[in-house]
Amino acid sequence: QTEFETILVEVSDGIATLTLNRPKALNALNLQVLEDVTAAAEAADADDDIRVIVLTGQDRAFAAGADIKEMSTLDFSVAYRRNWFAGWNRLTAVSKPIITAVNGFALGGGCELAMMGDILIASEKAKFGQPEINLGVLPGMGGSQRLTRAVGKAKAMDLCLTGRMMDAEEAERAGLVARVVPHDELAATAREIAETIAAKSLIAAGMVKEAVNAAFETTLEQGLRYERRLFHSSLATADQSEGMAAFIEKRDPHFTDS
Ligand code: CO8
């Protein structure tokens, strides 16, 4: 298994757990983290033995943002020419479900990274925010877009303009977070959700992900047609035959991703 400089990767029972591992910098996201997370996620996506990815932090932080020390000397021409941080799009191109388990600070790029996953769960100690305005800049990895889609204009403006933090309970109320759990149950809950999804058909799970994501890209009519066509396609899978037969025969399905 590949070793990474800034993340730990653990694979078991079809679940790849990626843990951000720059605790001294509160897991600040530099270019190496970008490279490591996206490479590990792509490797997991390509590995037939892996069905679900969990991305989490450690200690006090999920990630306290893009690395301010790295960014402080970055200038416009370099950022523009290199399309700085556009590489994070590689993570959102991953087809397998990604659970982001937020254990602590998820600020700036950290909040944006958490939102790149498919199911966001949080410990009671999680803190979310887009504090870029305090640095004289603005969100740059999706904060103004994904956060607004997740929580609406009112709270997105509030968070991005004031730079304040919101706790896990507020984040759940606002619709950013799927579930809040006690801090010491976060990893187990992420695992439980991952195991539940890992038992499904990978094809059906991939289609769910595509269909829900389409809701953010299309009109309602286009999205409904897309969903319906995906449903029609699912009828061509062995997993559909198996899933429905298992229901009728009152037994557990055995999916083969085919
Ligand atoms: N970058 C670099 N280092 C950081 C970061 C960061 N984002 N956050 C924390 N650290 C470091 C600190 O410098 C400190 O290091 P050292 O011990 O060497 O001084 C260490 O982590 C511990 O941090 P603190 O001492 O500050 O810990 P506190 O408990 O006092 O405070 C906070 C915790 C509140 C989380 C505080 O660290 C903080 O405010 N951090 C910065 C949060 C922030 O502003 N994040 C947004 C960054 S900008 C961003 O994310 C833009 C993304 C888009 C880029 C896309 C470009 C296209």
Describe the structure.
The protein has 258 residues and is of the alpha/beta class. Helix 9 runs antiparallel to helix 10 (220-234). It is built from eleven helices and ten strands. The radius of gyration is 19 Å and the shape is globular. It binds octanoyl-coenzyme A. Keywords: Lyase. InterPro entries: ClpP/crotonase-like_dom_sf (IPR029045), Enoyl-CoA_hydra/iso (IPR001753), Enoyl-CoA_hydra_C (IPR014748).
Could you spell the SSE succession in H and E letters? Answer: EEHEEHHHEEHEEHEHEHHHH
Helix content: 40-55%
Coarse structural class: alpha/beta
**Intertermini distance:** 27 Å
Q: Helical stretch count?
A: 11
| Attached small molecules | octanoyl-coenzyme A
InterPro entries: ClpP/crotonase-like_dom_sf, Enoyl-CoA_hydra/iso, Enoyl-CoA_hydra_C
Protein name: Enoyl-CoA hydratase
Keywords: Lyase
Catalytic activity: a 4-saturated-(3S)-3-hydroxyacyl-CoA = a (3E)-enoyl-CoA + H2O; a (3S)-3-hydroxyacyl-CoA = a (2E)-enoyl-CoA + H2O
Write the layout of secondary structure elements.
Layout: E1 7-12, E2 15-20, H1 31-46, E3 52-56, E4 61-63, H2 68-71, H3 76-81, H4 89-92, E5 98-102, E6 105-107, H5 109-116, E7 119-123, E8 127-129, H6 143-162, E9 165-167, H7 168-174, E10 179-181, H8 186-198, H9 202-214, H10 220-234, H11 238-248
Parallel strand pairs: 2-3, 3-5, 4-6, 5-7, 6-8, 7-10
Antiparallel strand pairs: 1-2, 8-9
Helix pairs in contact: 9-10
The protein binds octanoyl-coenzyme A (CO8).
Octanoyl-coenzyme A is lined by residues 25-26, 28, 64-69, 84-85, 105, 107-109, 131-132, 135, 139-141.
